[in-house]
Structure formats: C-alpha cells, structure tokens
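Hi V.,

You were right to ask for the full record rather than a summary. Here it is.
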Amino acid sequence: MSTRTAVVHDVPAERPGTSRPRQEGPTDLRLVPPALAVWATAAVMLHASPGWAVAVVIASVLVAAVLLTARGRLPPVRRGSTARARVTAHAVAATLLCAAAAAASAGLHGADVRRGPVPELAREYARAVAEVEVTADPRLTRPRVSGNHMAPVSVLIEADVRRVERAGAATRTTRAPVLLMIAPGDRKDPAPSADHQDSPWLALLPSTRLRVEARFAPAMDGGDRFAAVLRVDGRDGPRAVAGPSAPQRLAGRLRGGLREATEDLSEDARALLPGLVVGDISRVTPELDHAFHETDLTHTLAVSGSNFTILLALLLGPPGLAQRAERRGLAPRVGISLRTTAVLGAALSLAFVVVCRPDPSVLRAAACGSVALLALATGRRRSLIPALATAVLLLVLYDPWLARSYGFLLSVLATGALLTVAPRWSEGLRRRGVPPRLAEALAAAGAAQALCAPVVAVLSARVSLVAIPCNLLVEAALAPATVLGFLALATAPVAMPLAKAVAWCASWPAEWIAQVARTGAALPGSGVDWPGSWAGAAALGAVTLVVLLVGRRLLRHPWWCAACALLLALLVVQPRPLTRAVTGWPPPGWRMVMCDVGQGDALVLAAGGNTGVVVDAGPDPLLVDDCLRSLGVTRVPLVVLTHFHADHVAGLTGVLRGREVGGIGTTALEEPADQVAAVRRAAAAAGVPLTRVAAGERRRAGDLTWEVLWPPPGGHPAVEGPNDASVALLVRTGSLRLLLLGDLEPPAQRALTRSPAARDLAGVDVLKVAHHGSAYQDPGLVRLAAPRLALISAGEDNTYGHPAPSTLAALRAGGAEVLRTDRDGALAVVPGAGGDGELEVARH
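Predicted structure:
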C-alpha cells in the first residue's frame, strides 16, 4: 500500500463524520467499454454456432492487430491529436480483444449444451444410465395446483453428465450440464413437509458423483443452459460413485449446523436465518416468498453482495465514511495495517465462497460485495467504476451464462447505484438538512430502486410502491441478523448450545424483517401492475426519470413534498372508506361475494360487521386472502370446505392468516389423502378445530343461517368420489335464499332432488353452479332450483372448457342471469333497494 493510502488509518478526523472528503480526478471509464463488450458478446454468442464464434474471434483479433499496428505508425505531427488517436486505437483494440475472449468462452460453454450424446438422447426421450457430478445444492419445487390436485413436489439437482451408458451402445464420455428431476416415487404427500426435507436426495453436496438411471428429455422453457432434463425415479435413493470434496464437506457441515441451530426458532426465523446467511431458502414458505417479492426484499434472501458487504464492514468500517479519512471498522480500532487488512479481507472472501458454495452466483456476490466496500474503503472514488467493470469482465469470462442472468444484471445495477449515484444523492440530502445516517440510507435505497425497478418489472410485471420504505425498515435489522447468523454458523460445529443461543438472538431481527415484508405486502396499494416486457421497462425508466426531475424541484418546497407524501400514503394504505367511495367495493350491504380466485371456488357470506362465513378457499392462499382483506373480514366463525380437491382447499392458509377462525367443517369423504393431510396440518398449526358436517345440520351466525343438504350421514350410493361428496348448503341471508352446490355431479344432484330437502330448493334466488359450470349437470335440479341469478367460478382461459356452453344455455333458458368470475371478476350479491327479494350484483 502507498503512504498516501495508509493515512486512512493514521490520520483521525476532528470529529466523527466531519473530516474532509478526498479530492480526486474525474471517474476513470476506460474499463467500461471492454466490460460491456464482453457482456454483450457473451449474451449473443451462447446460442451461436461454433462457426460464428470462431469467425467473431478471428475478426476481432485481426481488427485489433490492425489498429495496434497502425497506431505505432502514426506520423509525429500535431502531438496532441496523435496521442489521442493512439489512446483511442489502444482502447478500441482492447475492447475487441475482450470481445474475442468472450466469444471464445461463450462458444465453448454453448457447445457443452449442444454437443455429445446427451442432446441426442434428449431428442429421442431415451432411457440411459449416466454418471453425473452435482454442481449446486438440491432444491424442492414449489407446490402448485394443477386442476383439482396438487402437482407432486420434485427434487431438482443441477449437475454435469460425465459418462453415458446405453443398452446396446458403447459407453461415451462427455461433459454436459443437465437438470435432474427426482420424482417423489411412492410418496403421496405433495406438500413440502418434514419427510420431503429429510429426503436423501436433498442431502447431496456439490461435487458428489452419482450413477442414475433416467429418462432424458429436452430442457424446458428457461432451461437453455441445460443440455437435457433427466427424470429419475427417487424411490431407491441416490447411488453415489464418489463423495464430495473436502471443502464441500466442510461447507455442508457448517450449513447443516446452522439449520440445526435454528430448528427450535419460530417459523419465520427458522426460514429466514439460513437464507440471510448462506442463501438456503428451502424453509421459506410460498406466502413469505411472495411477501418478499412484493416488497422487493428478495435480495436479502439471496447470497448477494450485501451479505458479504456487512461482514467486510465489520472489518473495514461503514461505507458511508468511504470518502473521509476516518474509519470505524475493527481493523483500525485494533491497529491492523491496511496490508494486513487486505489479507484478512481476502481470507474472509475465500471463507464466504467456501461456505456459500463456489457456484457463479456466489462468486458474483463475493466479487460485487468486495468491490462495493473495498473500493469505498480506500476512499478513492475514482477507482469505483473500474473495479466494478473489472469484476463484470472477469465473471462473465468465467461463466458466460451470467450475461443472460437477470440476477447478475440486478446485482451489477444495484452495486453501481450504491457506488456512484447513492453518494451524490446522500450529499445532496445532507445539504438540505437531512441527518447524515438517514441521508445515506435514503440515498442507497432510492438509488438501488431507481436502477433496478425496470428489470424487476420485466420479471414480475409489477412495480412495488413500498420497496424503499420496507428496505429502510429492514436495514437496521439486516446487519445484526446476518452477523449473528454467521456467528451461529461458525460456532455450531464446536458448541451447538452456544450456536442455538446466538441463533435465538438473531431470530429477533429476522422476525422483524419477516414482519416488515408481510405488512408491506398486505397493504392494498403495495404495488401496481406494469407491462412485463422490455418496452414496459423502458417506460418505467422514463417515468422514474421524470419523477426524479420533478422530485428534485419539489425538495425546495416542503409543503408540496408533504402533500405528495400524503397522496402516496393514501394510495398505498387505501383506507377502506376512501376505497369504497372511489371504487364502490365492497358494496354496502353485500350478502355474498364470489371471490375471483382463478380455477377454483371461494365464497364469503356476510354475517354482520367484520364477520363472514367462508365456503371453500380456492387454489391460492394469496388470492383468497386478498379477497377477504378487500371485504374487511377479520373474523370467520366457520370455514366450510365442500370437499378436499386442491382447487377448493389449497388456499386455506390464506383464510387462516391473521384472522380469528372458529372452526373448519369438512365433508366426511377424506379423499384425496394428500389434501386431507395438508388441511389437517394447516388447522393444527393455526389451532383451529376440524369437524365433519352432514345433511340436516342447521347453524346461524348473526342474521345468516344455513342448512346442510348433502352429503347424508352414513354415506349414500350416489357418493362415488370427492365431487359427489361435496357439502351442499341452502343459505338464508335477509330475504334471499342461496343454493351452494360445491362440485356435485349428476348422480348426487339427482339424489338431492329426491331427498326430503328437495321441497326447500324450489325457486332459489342465487345458485352457485356446481363444478365451475361443467357440462355434467342434472337438468332436473336446474329446473327445480329455477334461480334468478347463477354464479360460476372459473379461471380465465382454463383448459377444461369451463363453463360449458350447454350449461350456460340451460341456465339462461330457465330465466337465470349468468355471471362468471373469469369474465366479470369478483361478484357481490346485494339486496335491491326496493326490498321484496330484489337483488343486485356488483362486479370488482
């Protein structure tokens, strides 16, 4: 280190935060064109043919050679212009040589996907035995509803195929990246429960070699970096050929120790701490993951530069003092020289990469995190952009697939914003009287959001309006949670009781982060839909630029700033009286609402005030939760699950979330078993009793009464499956009568018309049409009910053809007005102003 740089530790400031900034020249941008050239070339050449890659390499090298040769032959006239020409030629030649290197690297990586026996086997959907080397941590797919059942959860493992054996053919050696998809075998529970977490496939460590028998298939959409997908039957467990390397065994031991140390914590802390520390998000629920996406906090759950920056900040001091002579890190406080500090930083980088696994995303995080803080810690702003450009150049040359990675793009944009834009904004805010620490936090959050929001909009087709305040609120908790989490990680292998105590301390800030994410995502105006395309990203960039220009002028007018802040707060919070006045939803006096939950059922029956009875929960917890929030329902005396198909019960956790629920009533036929188990787990976790309902039961909640019409106690010959075991209800609310048929099919519908309850079915006001309006309806029941209004819950553009044209025609022929959620949205039934059984329908 130079003497000038060493002054960083030796020259104290007069007061903390008051030392003068260093004066340096203009920003050095010479490495930016080569970095951009490498990035663009790699992105284009990954899917180019080998011939094109070779042509680009040769052409770039030849042109660079010509430029360098011509530069040395420039005549010695007009020295200034000659020097500039030589510098320009040198810069262009360097850029071309970097592009040639990128083309070569991308061509080689792209060839791994296209050459060899693996793509051939994938095109034939052939079966073969392969020896593969695991390259990343195994992970579980997210549970999702497919029709009336849950798609099975599979284990996904990224690997490289090393050898392929096929019957009747010679063994072939190769190297091709593939994705292993481990089928659940004979497991019947598709939800990620404890037995899935204990799967031996999930315990595999990177660098492990396996021998698998698999069916090869072409890579799915978005899997262009894989030569094939290998579908493996997971019942017999993995067959290891060679164990993991020593560094990976050490990393696995540390990561396993952290999971064990967090085992007894709350659900949120147990899920978040491994994610904050080492990027292990296997315990994060879909609901919590959605909350982090809605508030743009997903970077806290990834192995990002921020994790590493926090660790380096302990050693070097906070980045807010980067331009000043003073430091507050551990190194200057204990008198460690800058040279030794650099060595310690390098050791910390190596340990970070080992523990978090040396895959490209972790290497990117370590590089960008090192650049973000080490460049700032030197107090040399002039070196920030060159350092970031160097990191981009080297990382893309190492792994060209990063050039097509949205995560890499967001990481570079965020790092660039923190290094360049944020310091200027922070200085401007301080000049306007904002306290230094608050100015730094506001500038960092705002700069990162401004540069990253267009890319996030492409990915999620949504723009978060709460991202900046949520990031500010979690900022204070992120550092202690991360530092304590790493301390628990380090102590777990040698002192588990101490690690658990440290993890318990870390759980407090982790729970705060989760609470901020949930609260922000729950706000009605937390985000706005935005076109999920690059045209939409460009439009958002333009809007952001206009907002920044206008905001800069508004800062001179405090009252206008206050008015804009109040308007934004109203837009985000959307107080219910204001929302009702503007949108008309929910309509006053509503009696029943059919929620728009896609291809599924979820109804809410008003029981007075903030109370409502819920009939079915739909396929998605988020959608039914949003519906109940929009209605202001916080108390649910009973949830009726008509039957256990996933499109009626998978959203149950959304109903239970944050509400006082009295009980859950279900049908007696407990099929399918996987969904029955999921309902039982959700009820037990919420402490809500689970009971069975049967025909003949009558209940009341406020002025709402209902009678169970089906299924009969003790079973019935017409009950041949879950649909015919659906709970059917006759509801009386005010002067209206509503018939809710679940998914009853013709056999049960005919039996219902012959039951003693048939006399009460004639001439109902509202009919919730059975089974999403499918063609399987009993004409006799439709004629008997003769509804004035028929409501159908179906998903937009569903593959089942629901509702069927024949069903729509039969209902209309009987004089019913037919409304459907796939076209009309959520539907609210409201008694007419004239009384005497009149009704109106509001759409949302």
